[in-house]
Specification:
The complex is a heterodimer of chains A (about 160) and B (about 290).
Chain A lengths: L3 E4 L5 H6 L8 E8 L3 E2 L2 E10 L1 H19 L3 E7 L1 E4 L3 E9 L2 H18 L2 E7 L4 E3 L24
Parallel strand pairs in A: 1-5
Antiparallel strand pairs in A: 2-7, 3-4, 4-6, 4-8, 5-7, 8-9
Helix pairs in contact in A: 2-3
Chain B lengths: L6 E6 L21 H12 L2 E6 L7 H4 L3 E3 L7 H11 L4 E6 L7 H9 L7 E5 L6 E8 L4 H9 L5 H7 L2 E4 L13 H13 L16 E6 L2 H7 L3 E6 L4 H11 L10 E4 L2 E3 L10 E5 L6
Helix pairs in contact in B: 1-4, 3-5
Classes of the chains: A alpha+beta (about 160), B alpha/beta (about 290).
């Protein structure tokens, strides 16, 4: 199984977790990103995720491999949802197994943080008012605001 | 668009220029001969560009240095040049343009190319004067060759009449005066004054910009997909780099994001904005991401 994949249906962390099992592992850490009901002060009713999968799979896999090399963990994987998601739905899962807990937490955080900034995935939020907008794109389009990659705005699952 | 025939350019410069009493191809409005200027405009939007000449014009200095297609039936006017081109490269479509159109600009050519309907025999503009097809700024598809030769064989010489009766896609001119031509010395003087008085920045084509068009596939995601109104398109572009391509696309689509806010991928891998584009490349402009 590839270490970074997409799913168009409900994520099933229990099944992904089993793939990380390793006799040398002393622990497992995971992160789940959930769709919350607000973003930057706006009430959100649902989210749509879209990805440039051909490149996202490669970049996601590079991030997972970096985490393995950097923290000396045993196994790691990430699964991301695409499509329309409701409040409370699971948008992303990251799992890491390792000999000790410290590197499991660190690697898990590295994968989700890097993934948010580097993998070509976009989300559009739909607010209670009926407005919708591509997160990190719409406000950045205003003149004088062209540093989106350097200082990302508040994210959905921080 | 990938099934379309490649687009070649043909500058018609075989006319006798009897009313002007001088060679219209050699006249200068833009600081170079009208033939040179039209040739450069066409070479921005065509894979290859040629000049149509009568057999006796081959060595004439204005025409001698350019790739030529020689009339096979001289003396019957522009239809000789168009049919010679269709016979010389039967698998190409031809963007045929007369050399006496000083108001022609790249935007007019790009609009025609962008709205080309390769299933028709030709794609042409409606004249802003009489609403009839303008044969001398039109795309002639390979399928027009046989009926055009039959038209000529039947003793008919008017390319406009051919387009009126053929299955031709007709477009309105984005700039109504772009195809106004200049036939007399008086018209020449007034045109020179008009072109001098207005900025010709978008009409003038520096010689060093002569570039070859490449066929590129562009895929759009998220906000760019919505603003382009499509997930992908294939087009022929003279853009040498992704940076130039994005500038060009911003003229076609209402993209709000500046290039500095985007990343770019070539053939599904991150790329530099200044990597040379190659024929057949797939280009993706990546808006600010928001996974997780």
């Amino acid at each position: 199984m590839n270490s970074f994949t997409f799913s168009t249906t409900t994520l099933t962390p229990e099944s992904y977790r089993q793939a990380l099992a390793d006799p040398a592992a002393g622990g497992y850490a995971s992160f789940e990103g959930w769709v919350r009901n607000h973003n930057e002060g706006q009430a959100v009713t649902r989210l749509e995720y879209e990805a440039f999968e051909a490149l996202a799979n490669k970049e996601g896999e590079r991030i997972v491999n970096e985490a393995i090399a950097r923290f000396g963990i045993l196994k790691a994987a990430c699964v991301h949802r695409i499509g329309s998601l409701a409040i409370g739905d699971l948008a992303v899962w990251v799992g890491v197994s390792s000999r000790h807990r410290a590197e499991a937490f660190a690697a898990c955080r590295y994968i989700i943080d890097e993934g948010k900034h580097r993998v070509p995935i976009w989300k559009k939020d739909h607010s209670v008012s009926g407005d919708s907008g591509w997160v990190n794109c719409e406000r950045c389009a205003q003149p004088g605001h062209d540093h989106a990659h350097e200082h990302p705005h508040a994210h959905q699952h921080d | 668009m990938s099934a379309e025939a490649p687009l070649f350019g043909l500058v018609l410069a075989g006319g006798a220029s009897t009313r002007m009493q001088r060679d219209k191809a050699a006249i200068e409005y833009h600081g170079q001969s009208q033939l040179q200027w039209t040739f450069h405009l066409l070479s921005h939007v065509c894979a290859a560009t040629f000049v149509s000449v009568r057999p006796d014009q081959r060595e004439e200095p204005t025409r001698a240095g350019l790739p030529q297609i020689v009339d096979r039936l001289p003396g019957i006017g522009p239809i000789a040049g168009i049919s010679a081109a269709l016979q010389a490269h039967p698998k190409a479509a031809w963007l045929v343009v007369a050399c006496d159109l000083p108001f022609l600009n790249e935007q007019t050519l790009r609009h025609l190319v962008a709205h080309r309907d390769a299933r028709k025999l030709a794609t042409a503009y409606r004249s802003s004067h009489d609403g009839l097809p303008e044969p001398l700024c039109a795309i002639w598809e390979p399928a027009s060759r046989e009926p055009l030769l039959a038209h000529v064989a039947a003793g008919k010489q008017c390319p406009r009449k051919f387009l009126i009766n053929a299955d031709t896609a007709l477009l309105d001119l984005p700039d109504a005066r772009a195809l106004d031509n200049v036939n007399t010395a008086d018209e020449y003087r007034s045109t020179l004054a008009q072109i001098g008085a207005t900025s010709s920045a978008d009409a003038a084509v520096p010689a060093h910009r002569v570039a070859k068009a490449r066929t590129l596939r562009i895929q759009y995601y998220a906000i760019l997909r919505e603003q382009a109104g499509r997930s992908e398109e294939t087009l022929d572009s003279t853009a040498a780099t992704p940076a130039e391509l994005y500038d060009e696309l911003r003229k076609r689509h209402p993209f709000q994001l500046a290039a500095t806010q985007l990343k770019v991928a070539l053939n599904s891998e991150f790329s530099d904005w200044h990597t040379p584009l190659r024929h057949g490349d797939t280009v993706v402009f990546i808006p600010p991401v928001a996974g997780g």
